[in-house]
């Protein structure tokens, strides 16, 4: 995804501790044209894979997931970080946020994640893989099938991608960051 890589180099900002800020075009202010290109690339990369539901975790994964769902004409469900009082048949797990350095109990209704589902998980970042591992746990609890995981940006210098691939997960990352040392963005 040359357009995404170019935008990361042009507008991305690096902070100490391996943090890449892309809030001017991905996860605060969004570029809908770029988001559409991102979604189309996910659709192309998962072509031929059995998928009947797109799942993400709030909040930054919602925009790319909705675009993928729109193009594929599939429902999109997002895992919530706060447990609503009205949620029925709740499945829960705990995930650790690398960026915010805190644990969240996340939840999804088993009404919207069932044993019949073949899930494509879409998220903005893959760092240590905590949200992804939490999603795998929720999918397992529901008896659903994980068809694949798509990430807008993967940080190769953290272990998330390695962990998921070693588990046999079909992972597609559109931009892979090799290194952020000295706040210099190096893309594979």
Structural class: alpha/beta
CATH architecture: 3-Layer(aba) Sandwich
Arrangement of strands in the largest sheet: 4-3-7-8-9-10
Give the % helix. Answer: 25-40%
Net shape = globular
Predict the CATH topology. Answer: Rossmann fold
User: Which spans of ≥5 residues are poorly predicted at pLDDT below 50?
Assistant: none
* Rg result: 16 Å
CATH class label = Alpha Beta
Quaternary state of the chains: single chain
Total number of distinct structural domains: 1
**Helix/strand order, N-terminal first:** HEEHEHEEEEHEHEE
Largest sheet: 6 strands, mixed
Count of helix runs:
5
What's the number of extended β-strand segments?
Answer: 10
Kindly report the average pLDDT value. 92
Distance between the amino and carboxyl termini: 11 Å
Portion in strands: 25-35%
Keywords: Cytoplasm, Glycosyltransferase, Membrane, Purine salvage, Transferase, Transmembrane, Transmembrane helix
Subcellular location: Cytoplasm
Main location: cytoplasm
Transmembrane segments: 61-79
Q: How would you characterize the overall build of this protein?
A:
This protein is an alpha/beta fold and 188 residues long. The chain has a single domain, classed as Rossmann fold. Helices cover 29% and strands 33% of the residues. The protein contains 5 helices and 10 strands; from the N terminus they run H-E-E-H-E-H-E-E-E-E-H-E-H-E-E. It has a 6-stranded mixed sheet with strand order 4-3-7-8-9-10, with helices on both faces. It has a two-stranded antiparallel sheet with strand order 1-2. Strand 8, helix 5 and strand 9 form a beta-alpha-beta unit. The longest helix is centred in the first third of the chain and has 14 residues. It is globular and about 45 Å long. The protein starts with a helix and ends with a strand. It is found in: Cytoplasm. Converts the preformed base xanthine, a product of nucleic acid breakdown, to xanthosine 5'-monophosphate (XMP), so it can be reused for RNA or DNA synthesis. It comes from Macellibacteroides fermentans.
